[in-house]
Amino acid sequence: MGDILINISSTYIALWGAITGSISLLVLIFTFLRDRPIIKITYKEGWKIMNAIPPYKEGVSYTSISVFNKGRRAIRIEKAVFRVKGDKPWILLTDSWSPTRNKILTEGKPSTEFNFESKLINFDKVYYIAVFDGVGKKYVKWVHFGNFLKDYFRISKLGK
User: Fold this and answer.
1) 90-100 pLDDT, tens per residue?
2) Is the distance from CB of 108 to CB of 74 less than 8 angstroms?
């Protein structure tokens, strides 16, 4: 019988190594970028609570601020505040102290909510909603994003 001769060029091996190395580098970068808290803040007005228990009331319209962690790393959400126009520029939501609210956002429980009566806040006067984590980092949701530069200069010392 004849011998089988397999001849593999070193160019093909180098090409295969470059392709698999590039793919593994992209996967590693994607994993690194995902391994941090990615906070998303939304708000919705006009919620009614049926069969309400204290501190909520039946027939009252509520606004809900939802905080989502889309990343993999767990984060502790401490409080939510509004930055508003007027004499009192910061408004702290009292629901921040609720003992039943989920404060630690993980992959298993990625969201928490802050609820308050809708009549208490006029969203025309709100610049942004800010959520603070356990180490004091601020995450912001702009309410009127179209006026970003105007709002920025109003808030900063430059616009006053």
Assistant:
1) 888 877 677 77
2) no
Tell me the pairing of strands 111-117 and 61-69: antiparallel
Residue 37, preceding peptide bond in cis (omega within 30° of 0): no
Rounded Cα gap, residues 27 and 159, in angstroms: 45
Tell how many helices (H) and how many strands (E) occur in the chain: 2, 8
Select from 107, 123, 125, 135 the least CA-distant residue to 65: 123
Pairing outcome for strands 39-48 and 75-84: unpaired
Element (H, E) at 25: helix 10-34
Write out the two tokens for 41. 């803040």
Structural domains of the chain sorted by starting position, each given as residue range(s) with its CATH number in brackets: 34-159 (2.60.40)
